[in-house]
Design goal:
The chain contains one helix and three strands, in the order ββαβ.
């Protein structure tokens, strides 16, 4: 399900990110996005220099979001 506020659409994208102030460089957190919210969520993460990569949901690495 999309991570956009109040959105209940099926997610088609995985936004891989990390906050360098609290995460190790290799750690990847995941926000899920539908097509309608992808750009907005990417912009939010990019402005904070958190976004690392956007991939289709089927290509989200199995260890993404896991704690090291």
């Amino acid at each position: 399900m999309c991570s956009g506020k109040g959105c209940r659409a099926e997610a088609t994208w995985g936004l891989l990110w990390n906050n360098p102030k609290i995460h190790t460089p290799e750690r990847r957190k995941v926000w899920l996005a539908c097509d309608d919210h992808r750009e907005h969520l990417e912009l939010f993460l990019t402005l904070r220099d958190f976004l690392k990569q956007t991939v289709p949901v089927a290509e989200i690495p199995p260890d993404a979001g896991a704690r090291p």
